Amino acid sequence: MVNTNNADGTLRLVLGDIIATFAKDGKNVARAAIDAQIDVKLAPTGSTTTALNFGDADLRINLLDSRNATITEEDLTAAASKGISLQLDSLSKLLVTLPIPSLEGIQRENVSVGGAKGYILVSGRMH
Questions:
Q1: Alpha carbon of 41 to those of 52, 63, 116, 120: distances in Å?
Q2: Contacts of 32 by beta carbon, 8 Å cutoff, 6+ apart
């Protein structure tokens, strides 16, 4: 889900309740629910495209099951953070540019995309 609940109205990607199983030496040692919030900035890459830039992930981890009494939520944070970072890297390569839809017969100038008050806003001049 993408929302604009940040205080400054910027966009935020929210990934809720990702269930992950953590293993060591091929044996499952823990299961956890991961919630992640990632700030997203849209940057123009041309007159008809925009790019997604992801900020750092803010993670919350809830340990669901542990087969090792010494594993804590804090222990899993580094592994989860690395996993989320890898996914964001793949996603950013896939979504290098997002096309802004065109309307036949209408020209656009100074198009910008951003977030404010819970909406994704596209602004610019059309003629």
A1: 6, 31, 12, 11
A2: 19, 20, 22, 61, 62, 63, 64, 73, 76, 80
CB atoms within 10 A of CB 121: 13
Q: What is the pTM of this model?
A: 0.62
Question: What count of residues does the chain have?
Answer: 127
Beta bridge partners of 32: 20, 63
Cα separation, 103 vs 41, whole angstroms? 25
Instruction: Pull the structure tokens for residue 101.
Output: 């839809």
Q: In what order do the strands lie in the sheet with 2-3?
A: 2-3, 11-24, 27-44, 49-66, 98-99
Contact call for residues 50 and 36 (beta carbons, < 8 A): no
User: Pick from 111, 123, 99: which is nearest to 49 by CA?
Assistant: 99
Tell me the three state secondary structure of residue 53. strand
pLDDT in tens, 76-115: 888 888 888 888 888 777 766 666 667 787 877 777 766 6
